[in-house]
Amino acid sequence: MVWWERAWRIAELRQRGDVLAAFVAACGDGERARRARELAAGVCGLAYAGGDLDAAEDAVRTLEEWADDLGDHPYRPGGSRPDAADRLTRDHFKDVLREALTVPARDWMSATRLSLDVHYQALCRARGLDRRTREDAFYVYGRGTMALDLGHRRAAEREAARLRRLRQTCVKQ
To answer: Are residues 105 and 164 in the same domain?
Structure first.
């Protein structure tokens, strides 16, 4: 399994484990609630580099079975829409990825993110920009932040440079 596939799977398991454990803990009896919290802690503690992915998948399956036992409960969490599920998993993925990064890599990511934010905000505040330039700024900013989320250094730096050039050519300073 490629590193990013493993990181994405860990993120999916963390997200689903959190939701199911919270539901089971809120609705279950005392012992099952305690056990659900323990299972969720095990899944959330799954490290990027180490940890047993199979055990985490088993824990989530157990939580799903316990949630199914409470299937008639009005607040039982259902399946998310694909876009919502991806958005939640992406948030967990960023956490998993950051755990695997060294301090210099995190510093680089922070500096690149700051560069993207500064140039994007300057373009958003600029008066008199045409619709196409604003769309370009939004698109390049989105690509840059996505590259950061995935830890793709070259792509993130390239998009930050594109955004800087767009700002230099379109915004009077």
So the answer is: yes
Q: Give the count of domains, the chain.
A: 2
In a domain, 151, yes or no: yes
3-state secondary structure of 111: helix
What is the three-class DSSP state of 110? helix
Q: CA 146 to CA 123: how far, in whole Å?
A: 19
What's this model's pTM, rounded to 2 decimal places? 0.63
CB 144 within 8 A of CB 160: yes
DSSP string, 32-81: HHHHHHHHHHHHHT--SSSS-HHHHHHHHHHHHHHHHHTTT-TT---PPP
**Residue 24 counted as domain residue:** yes
| Whether the Cβ atoms of residue 24 and residue 63 lie closer than 8 Å to each other | yes
Same domain, 18 and 60: yes
Cα distances (angstroms) measured from residue 106 to each of 56, 86, 90, 97, 153 = 27, 23, 17, 10, 11
The pLDDT tens digits for 47-56 are: 555 667 888 8
User: What is the domain extent for residue 24?
Assistant: 3-69
* 7-46 pLDDT, tens digit each: 788 888 888 888 888 998 888 678 888 888 888 888 877 6
